[in-house]
Specification:
Elements: H1 6-24, H2 32-40, H3 45-50, H4 64-69, H5 79-82, H6 84-91, E1 100-105, E2 108-111, H7 121-129, E3 134-138, E4 149-154, E5 157-160, E6 163-165, H8 167-176, E7 180-184, H9 190-195, E8 203-209, E9 216-225, E10 241-245, E11 252-259, E12 262-266, H10 284-297, E13 303-310, E14 315-321, H11 327-330, H12 339-347
Antiparallel strand pairs: 1-2, 1-7, 3-4, 3-7, 4-5, 5-6, 8-9, 8-13, 9-10, 10-11, 11-12, 13-14
Length: about 350
């Protein structure tokens, strides 16, 4: 069983205080006694509503406090997942990843990919002028799609997340950035375009390394789907929806959204009306096998949430996450109902 260092225990104390502070900022019609009971268990009123804990067994759910403890599972190796550039350069040796062309440090663009010269403002504009969009995103320290920008040029006009910029404004924007990556805009396959063409729709696959057998397994998988509210990203916290993926068949469940404290279920896409429930992820068995093989390649990372893009041929890995959001997973199904998952978390002293 994992023993926590003094620094980790300090981080856990800060997490508990943070949850209490965040909970205090929200107002819900929950009796104060019940609210305090939730906080003692590591849940906020947000999860009370999201998981319907009034009617569900709280013991089946990983709490928000326990989720935050999971960031310590990978130890120092978590740096591989926390730094997107490092992750890409390591993982691309084993599977296709989204290309990173450059890094922006204090407004200066430095090339990363020798096959594509994106080395300064002028070469970046030349790339855009070839009718190829780019993604700008923080290299680390953010989640939920925050800070991600889709930059493109159409008919000589530059757009950032659909807002038109003149070239001087684009230059000012680039000069204001620090610790950002200049990345390939991934052209997803027909399946992703069917779900929602205005965002790259990723599958979140949570893998765990069995401590006894030292073999990886998939704890849960969900399909994230962008919406008009979330585009150009598919992130659930940005207003996207998520559907559970049946582990055996690859079939999607109803999709769910959670905005302004309201849980809504959708058989069809809330904006386009296309069918979601019952759709089957193409080549699901191959995707599972590929991700399991990838997880086995990195035994020093026993806990990874992979963001996968199904392509018309094969798949692409956008990134790996060290401390996965579990709300968008557990709104579909509680993690701790799976005995294998429960034993994993017990081994790392996440739960008792």
């Amino acid at each position: 069983m994992k023993k926590y260092s003094l620094a980790e225990r300090y981080g856990m104390t800060r997490s508990r205080l943070s949850i209490i502070t965040e909970d205090a900022r929200t107002t819900k019609n929950i009796p104060i006694g019940e609210r305090l009971s939730l906080l003692r268990r590591g849940f906020s009123n947000r999860q009370y509503v999201l998981y319907d804990l009034k009617n569900k067994n709280m013991d089946d759910y990983l709490s928000e406090y326990e989720r935050r403890k999971t960031r310590f599972i990978n130890g120092q190796a978590s740096y591989v997942l926390s730094n997107k550039l490092v992750f890409s350069q390591i993982v691309e040796q084993h599977i296709r990843t989204a290309k990173i062309y450059g890094m922006i440090q204090k407004g200066d663009i430095w090339p990363v990919d020798s096959t594509r010269n994106v080395a300064d403002y002028n070469t970046l504009v030349n790339y855009l002028d070839e009718s190829r969009p780019l993604i700008l995103k923080p290299n680390s320290g953010t989640d939920g799609g925050r800070g991600v920008m889709l930059i493109c040029m159409e008919n000589g006009k530059v757009f950032c997340n659909q807002t038109e910029l003149d070239l001087s404004s684009l230059k000012s924007l680039l000069e204001s950035l620090d610790g950002y990556l200049v990345c390939e805009f991934v052209r997803q396959g027909n399946y992703g375009n069917y779900l929602f063409a205005e965002s790259v729709n990723t599958i979140r696959i949570l893998t765990m390394m069995c401590p006894q057998e030292h073999e990886p397994f998939i704890a849960m998988s969900i399909q994230r789907i962008g919406t008009d509210a979330s585009k150009p990203v598919d992130n659930w916290s940005a207003g996207g929806v998520s559907a559970h993926i049946n582990a055996d068949t690859g079939t999607l469940s109803k999709a769910v959204s959670f905005r302004d404290g309201i849980v809504e279920w959708h058989k069809t896409h809330p904006d386009t009306g296309i069918e979601i429930e019952g759709i089957i992820v193409p080549n699901w068995q191959r995707i599972k096998e590929a991700v399991i093989s990838l997880a086995a390649t990195f035994p020093y990372l026993p806990y990874v949430a992979w963001d996968v893009v199904p392509m018309d041929e094969g798949l692409l890995i956008i990134e790996g996450n060290n401390c996965s959001d579990v709300e968008m997973l557990q709104v579909h199904e509680p993690l701790l109902k799976n005995e294998r998952v429960r034993e994993f978390y017990k081994y790392y002293n996440i739960i008792k």
